[in-house]
Amino acid sequence: MSIMDGFSGNIEEYIVAPRKSGSKWVPHFLVAFDQESCISCGRCIKVCPGGVYVFEDEGDKMVVRIENMDDCLGDMSCEKVCPKNKTMHLHKFEPLQKQ
Predict the structure, then answer these.
(1) CA-based, 20 to 30 A from 69: which of 24, 53, 55, 56?
(2) CA angle (86 as vertex; 27, 91 as ends), nearest 5
(3) What residues pair up with 17 in beta bridges, in sequence order?
(4) DSSP string, 74-98
(5) CA separation for the pair 5, 3 (Å, rounded)
(6) pLDDT value at position 34?
(7) What residues contact 27, with CB distance under 8 A and at least 6 apart?
(8) 3-class DSSP state of 12
(9) Quick one: average pLDDT of 61-86?
(10) Domain limits of the chain?
């Protein structure tokens, strides 16, 4: 189940919020994760309000993995704290149609 289930038309009507400056805040959802560049520092795990990332045991080390990309809230907190210059690739949503 995705947080987007049940939405139709332009989802901006539901989740766009005004900023103090007057501009609109629009979420950017996670669509890919660059595992090759990731140093598994865990910063994304600590800041992600949706719990998208987890540590997994890979034998001799712990690595960051995506547990559920559909839980992304689009706040870009993971990208903001990543020391590898945005190894998380985020994408502005497109209008969704009910499936």
Answers:
(1) 24
(2) 30
(3) 25
(4) S--HHHHH-TTT--EEEEE---B--
(5) 6
(6) 83
(7) 15, 73, 74, 75, 92, 93
(8) helix
(9) 87
(10) 12-92
Terminal CA-CA length for the chain: 12
R_g of the chain, CA atoms, integer Å = 15
- The answer to whether domain 12-92 has CATH 3.30.70.20 is yes
pTM more than 0.70 = no
Q: Tokens at residue 76, please?
A: 């870009």
CA angle 13, 44, 60 (to 5 degrees): 145
Structure-block tokens of residue 88:
């998380």
